[in-house]
Every structure is written in C-alpha cells, then in structure tokens.
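Lecture notes, unit on protein representations.

Consider one protein chain, 287 amino acids long.
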Amino acid sequence: MNCSTAATAPRRRTGSIAASALVALLATGCAISPTAERETGLPAAIVGAPALGTASGFPSLAPLMRRVTPAVVNISVKSEVPMEDHPFLRDPEFRRFLDRFGLPAPEEGEIEQRQSVGSGIIVDAARGYVMTNDHLLRNATEIRVTLKDRRTFRARRLGSDAASDVAILEIPPVDVRALKLGDSNRLEVGDFVIAIGNPFGLGQTVTSGIVSAVGRSGIAGNRLGELIQTDASINPGNSGGPLINLAGEVVGINTALIGPSGGNVGIGFAVPSNRARVALDNVMRGR
C-alpha cells in the first residue's frame, strides 16, 4: 500500500547518492444537498443530476465544474529532510569501491532537498484560508499556492491537525467563491463523487466515480481513523484536493491511495468533511 499524498519531483541533494521515493496520499466522497428539494421544489435526485450541456444537449458536469474549480488550487512545497541511510553505505565493499574511484560518500546528517506537489481548497476567500493535507507540508521551507487563473502566492502555514491530516494555509484575500464543506455523514455507498486535484503536477484535473465504502479503517496504520473510499481516480499530487458531491459540496479531503507503485488502481481514500470541519475550527481557535 502506498500512503503519502504528494507527488515528489526529482530532487536536488547535497549528497551524491540519489534515493527516490514516490508517495501518494489522496481520496474522495459525495452527497446531495439536503436543501436542494426545498429550494427548487424538485426532487433532490433531479437537482443533483448532471445538467444538460447547452451546446451538445447531453448530460454534463461542465456547469458544476465551472462553478467549483476556481476554488481548487495547486500547491508546491520545497522541503529539507535528512538524507536516508541507504543500505549500500553500510557495506564495506561498497565503501571501498567508492574510495577506489575517488567518489565521495554522503556523510551522516546531510540534507536532502525535495520538491513536492499537491492540491488544496479555498475555504475562506476573504481571509485567504486554504485547506490541504498536513503530510504534504512536512518539513516545508517554502509553500506556494497557484490558482486556476495561474496567480501564484507564497503561503503561510497557520496550523494543522495531524490526526485528520488537515492543515490550513493563508494567502492574500482572493476574489473566488470558496467551497462549502458538506455533511459527510449523509454519504452512502453508491453516491456519485468527483475528485479534483493536481495529479503528478500535470495541472488541475477532474475525475469521477462513486463512494465505494464509508467508515473504512485500517489505512495508514489506522492513524487517520475512518475514511471514505472511492473509485474516482486519485494519484500522487491529488493530496489535499476535494472530493465533492453533485451539489458542489466538499464531502472529503483526498488523502491516501492504495497502489502497487503509487498509481491509481481504483482504491482511494478521503478524510470525511465533518472531521475536516472540526480540524479547521480547532486550528482557527488555536490562533
């Protein structure tokens, strides 16, 4: 199983031995707005269904995506971590090989520089608050947030809740509509959901699927508690991005995936939005 949520790009090191690590943490969720029937007079199932595209006349999620994607951001993180002690460095024969050709061996305590990418959600545009994954920001020395319109801001970390893998960043106020956190307790297996993020650093990408399970536990050593499982495609770089329902509400924060090599096999996980809301409130109270 692969548990991490960021796509880690090739990195520059101070040592001469390269150690690669591909980590992926991400996931998804979905629900129909409980107020939809009351506000429109139509059954919620109809209100939540994909709208007819004005050009083709076929069902399309495009109107919903035009409304929600401006509040989904790409996050780039530079970090410094101690270089991993590769087993070869403990091998006397390998040490002699390096000495024979005059090659320097990394010394203990050397620092490795990494650059990772992930995703985030604008939850308060007026105050510039962005929600993302805590693990994405580990050992960060610089954090940058890029909006869909390509504006880029240096971000400040306000706080985090490791138990739910949620962190809050601050950027300057922006003129976009923030995403609303929905009620993840209303999710059921079979609900349609949409994952939005920045897989492999390609840029904003939308995938869809269903809720495969709710209350899934035992993921990442169970340190993240109960999660939403989805088959919406989640890949490294989706970490911190939203899992939304067909009402445009965030029902999960993509945080983990299971795959043989860090890629999607239809099993992704998200932190339920109700837990993310509690984490947001705790971070804001602790300021």
